[in-house]
Amino acid sequence: MQKVKDFFKNLNLLDYFLYIFGFVGVIVSSIIVKSSVLTILYAITGIIYVRLMAKQYKECIFFGIVYVAIYIAQSTIYKNWGEVILYSAISLPILIFTSVNWFTGKNKKKDKLNNNPIKYQEWCILISVSLLVGVGIYFLLNYFDTPNLIIAVISFIIGVIGNYLILREDGKMFFCFISLNVIQILLWVMPIFKEYSFNYLEILPMIFTLIVFLISNFDGTIRWLREQKIEREDSKELDKNFQDDKTESKNNKEENDINSENKLGG
User: Fold this and answer.
1) How far apart are CA 178 and CA 163, in angstroms?
2) Dihedral, CA of residue 217, residue 218, residue 222 and residue 225, to nearest 10
3) C-beta atoms surrounding 178 within 10 Å
4) What is the full per-residue pLDDT of the chain (266 aa) written as tens digits?
5) For the chain, where are the E strands, in sequence order?
C-alpha cells in the first residue's frame, strides 16, 4: 500500500499528461474504430509499463510481461511474424528471467533499477551476435512471406539489443527503444496505406499507444543522461576529496618528521 501511495505522490506533469492523454486517446479511438478488447488491453498495459520503466520502477517488469504476451497475440493476428518471433523467443523469456533476478537475492530490497553500463567488449559481442541472428531471421521471415521484411528484421535486431540492455540494467536501452518505437510505428502504419480496410483501421489505438511509448522513452533517456551526469560529478568530487585528504596526510607527515628532527637536534 505504501508503494502505491509513493507512486501517486511522485507523479509529475508529464506522467499526468501521458496517462490521461494515453488512456483517453486509446479509449476514444477504440470506440471510434471499434477495436478489439485485446487492442485496448495492449494499449493500457503498455502505457503503464513504459512509464514505470522510464522512472526505473522495478514493478514495471510485471506489466511488461503482460504487455509482451498481448503484443505477441496481436502481432500473430496481423501476421507480423518478425514481432512474434522477437517477443516470443527474446523479449518474453528475458522479462521473465529479469523479474526473477530483480526480486530475489541481493536485488530484492532495491526499489529502483541501477545504471550498469556494459563494457566495450560486451557491446562488440552483443552487436555481433544480434547481427548474426538477424541474418537467420531474415531468411526465416522471408520464408513466411512477412510484409515489410527489411523493417521487420531491423526491428528484430534493435529489439534483441534493447532487451539485453534491460537484463543488464543499462540505461542505453532507452536509445534502442526510441528507435524500436519509430520502426514499430512504421510497421503498423504501412499496411493501413497499402491495404486500406476496417481491419487495419482497428489498430489505430495501437499506433496511438506507440506514440506515447516514444514520448515516454525520450523522457527515460533524459532521466538516464541526467543521472549519468550526477554520477560523474559525484565521482569527480570523491576523487578531489581523496586527493585533498592524501595531500593533507602527506603534509602532516612531513610536518611531524620536521618536528621529530627538531626535537632530536634540540
Assistant:
1) 13
2) 70
3) 20
4) 666 677 778 888 999 999 998 899 888 888 888 888 888 888 899 999 999 988 888 888 899 999 999 989 988 887 778 788 878 988 899 889 888 888 886 666 666 777 788 999 999 999 999 999 999 989 988 888 877 788 888 988 998 899 899 888 898 999 999 999 999 888 777 766 665 555 666 777 878 888 999 999 999 999 888 888 887 777 776 666 666 666 666 666 656 655 555 555 55
5) none
Q: Which long-range contacts does 194-197 make (Cβ < 8 Å, 24+ apart)?
A: 194/147
Joined together, the cell numbers standing for residue 18 give 501521458
How big is the chain, counted in residues? 266
Output the nine-digit C-alpha cell for 8: 501517486
Counting beta carbons within 10 angstroms of the beta carbon of residue 123, is it exposed (0 to 12), middle (13 to 18) or buried (19 or more)?
A: middle
Does residue 177 contact residue 203 with C-beta atoms inside 8 Å?
Answer: no
For residues 169 and 117, the answer to whether their CB atoms sit within 8 Å is: no
Distances (CA, A) of 201 to 75, 84, 190, 194, 204: 15, 20, 11, 12, 6
Nearest alpha carbon to residue 170 among 228, 257, 244: 228
Instruction: State the amino acid at position 163 in one-letter form.
Output: N
Question: DSSP label at 57?
Answer: B
pTM for this prediction: 0.78
Contact 41, 63 (CB under 8 A): no
What cell does 36 get? 478489439
- The label of the residue with cell 512509464 reads 51
* Degrees to nearest 5, angle at CA 137 with 133 and 138: 120
- List the grid coordinates of 114: 541501477
